[in-house]
Specification:
The protein has 22 helices and 10 strands. The chain is of the alpha/beta class. It folds into 3 domains: 309 residues, ABC transporter transmembrane region fold, CATH 1.20.1560; 152 residues, P-loop containing nucleotide triphosphate hydrolases (Rossmann fold), CATH 3.40.50; 74 residues, P-loop containing nucleotide triphosphate hydrolases (Rossmann fold), CATH 3.40.50.300. The strands form 2 sheets. Strands 6-7-8-3-9-10 form a 6-stranded mixed sheet, sandwiched between helices. A 4-stranded antiparallel sheet has the order 2-1-4-5, with no helix packed on it.
Length: 599
């Protein structure tokens, strides 16, 4: 029973506390000050009412156990007259206003802290995610969780703070009400508890809607991502309507769930005040007509409890809003746990520069039960160019992804400069790598920021930029633009040709201080003339970097120091281009076939 109550009512607290910490208690403490000062201010109304039919003096007799307030004033030598009572009332409510300001401002700071910590944690976990897990993830879920879902969780946290503050105010007013008239307070409490039963159905429906809405938003975000990523194809083929109709269905489902959730919340809001008045009316009627209580004796308690019942209803309304956030909260918790479990594993050894070689022994890799690499052995000395060739699915890209630290082998050993790869700090090693793929990475920013990765435009950095774009043969294109290197490239370089994109990608990697350059079919989508120009640029880099090339067109790797022929996850042959022509019948057939196709 107790465990069930803790799980039901304190699961939110434990989660929010894990993020906001002690700050939650400080918000509640300031709220206690606001409630106490408000209660003391309200207490001054009864002496004022007493003065209406008297000689202008007040006594503490009508305050019950709250008489200590006026007794304390009298003990200070202050006469209980109209002026002193009014000044006391002004003092209490003014002080309450000051405390409320600090409480509100501090709550704002705590909410911002919560939102910032939640977002920073999310993007930090995402950046450290294992690549192998990322490629299998739902991109819509990732985007939805790290944007609107985090906002919904922050909204839930805000509502939870309101609940805690309302409970604190409720505690203050109930305590004061019991001090002034215990019988009346007891009856009102019973009425408040009974009114809470009316909301249980709404609470359950709100939770179910929240969980459903989170799933719908994942699908909506996923469709948006697909529309943006493939906009050119969809537009060119007249297929935009297909995704549009699917997106419209998701939007309609979101609206339906939103309408239901809004309706439940409106029901809570609209019946709140009638319930408050109903409970108060019934209790006053019972006390006066059946318990013989004088109306004057319940006025102060009524003031306290009218305030208290507002907070009772406020707790119920805000709790329903929290339940409306249960889908995002559960999703964010689950998502963050998945990111934590699947974060990239790294060693602790610092790594500064690639100096000698990469050596692998009996390297194996598989996706589930499917074998991708099997017993691969190799030695790749520094500052040589290595080309990987073979049919699709032979393991070329998987092998270079292992060399880049994107994938971890399932068996065998791999050493960098005679140091086990698993011992190195992965981020240190990957900073020494330049990576260029067939799909060029172009950011929606200027050419300069694309190449320098947002480094400041100092004279030294600018000279490095000029050298990099010169090496990538993109200088003439940049100089022909009105805004030169400050020209914006648009979404994924939409206005650039394939060759221009690749040149900018190459310039970015050459701008960096790297030792290893990986090119995964980086020129296979280009026309022959552009590919030849870029290939000449790459050949000019021989001896300056350790270069790994996954090649589709064999004519582009003739100048590689070593060509590695792969077949079904195994290294079948290795040597220079000419050596493989002489030794490997499979390689001979591949060359002959491409020459036949190109002739």
């Amino acid at each position: 029973m107790i465990k069930s109550l803790i799980k039901k009512y304190f699961k939110f607290f434990s989660y929010f506390y894990s993020i906001a910490g002690y700050r939650i208690f400080l918000v509640v403490l300031l709220t206690f000050g606001v409630g106490l000062l408000d209660g003391l201010g309200l207490t001054m109304f009864l002496p004022l009412l007493e003065m209406v039919g008297s000689s202008g003096s007040a006594s503490s007799d009508s305050l019950g156990k709250m008489a200590f307030v006026l007794d304390a004033v009298s003990n200070l030598g202050i006469d209980l007259n109209l002026s002193s009572i009014l000044l006391l009332m002004l003092f209490f409510f003014t002080t309450k206003g000051v405390v409320r300001f600090f409480e509100g401002f501090y709550r704002l700071l705590v909410t911002q802290y919560f939102f910032k910590k939640l977002r920073v944690r999310g993007v930090t976990l995402l950046s450290g995610l294992e690549y192998n897990y990322f490629v299998k993830s739902n991109s819509g879920r990732i985007q939805n969780t790290l944007t609107s879902e985090l906002e919904a969780v922050t909204g839930g946290f805000n509502n939870y703070l309101t609940v805690l503050q309302s409970l604190m105010m409720l505690l203050v007013y109930i305590s004061l009400a019991y001090l002034s008239n215990a019988e009346f307070a007891l009856l009102i409490t019973a009425g408040g508890v009974l009114s809470n039963l009316a909301f249980r159905f709404l609470y359950k429906r709100t939770q179910a809607l929240s969980r459903s809405l989170t799933k719908i938003k994942h699908g909506y975000q996923n469709l948006l991502i697909q529309t943006v990523a493939h906009f050119k194809y969809l537009k060119a083929t007249g297929a935009t309507k297909v995704l549009l109709n699917m997106t419209k269905k998701e939007i309609e489902l979101m609206l339906q769930n939103g309408r239901k959730a809004g309706m439940y919340n409106l029901v809570l809001i609209t019946i709140r005040e009638p319930l408050i008045i109903a409970v108060v009316v019934i209790v006053i009627f019972v006390q006066v007509n059946y318990m013989g209580q004088q109306l004057s004796l319940i006025i102060l308690s009524l003031l306290f409890f009218y305030r208290a019942l507002n907070f009772v209803m406020n707790v119920q309304t805000q709790w329903n809003k929290i339940l409306g956030s249960i889908g995002p909260i559960e999703n964010v918790q689950e998502f963050f746990q998945e990111l934590e479990i699947n974060k990239t594993k790294s060693g602790n050894l610092n790594y500064k520069k690639f100096n000698e070689s990469i050596i692998a022994g009996n390297l194996n890799f598989n996706y589930g039960d499917r074998k991708i690499l099997s017993n691969c052995n190799f030695t790749f000395p520094r500052n040589q160019t290595f080309a990987f060739v073979g049919e699709s699915g032979s393991g070329k890209t998987t092998l270079v992804n292992i060399l880049a630290g994107l994938l971890r082998p399932k068996g065998g050993t791999i050493e960098i400069d005679n140091i086990p790869f698993t011992n190195l700090k992965l981020a240190d090693y990957q900073k020494r790598i330049g990576y260029i793929t067939q799909e060029s990475v172009i950011f929606n920013d200027s050419i300069y920021n694309n190449v320098t990765f947002w480094e400041p435009k100092t004279p030294e950095n600018y000279q490095r930029f000029l050298r990099a774009v010169e090496q990538a043969s993109i200088t003439d294109y940049i100089n022909g633009l009105d805004e030169k290197e400050d020209s914006l490239l648009g979404n994924n370089g939409i206005n650039l040709s394939g060759g221009q994109k690749q040149r900018i990608s190459i310039a970015r990697e050459l701008y960096k201080d790297i030792d290893i350059l990986i090119m995964d079919e980086a020129t296979s989508a280009l026309d022959s003339e552009t590919e030849l120009a870029i290939q000449q640029n790459i050949d000019a880099l021989k001896g300056q970097y350790t270069i790994f090339i996954v090649a589709h067109r064999l004519s582009t790797i003739k100048n590689a120091d070593q060509v590695i022929l792969m077949d079904k996850g195994e290294i079948k042959a290795q040597g220079s281009y000419q050596q493989l022509l002489e030794r490997s019948e499979k390689f001979q057939r591949m060359v002959s076939l491409q020459e036949l196709v190109n002739s």
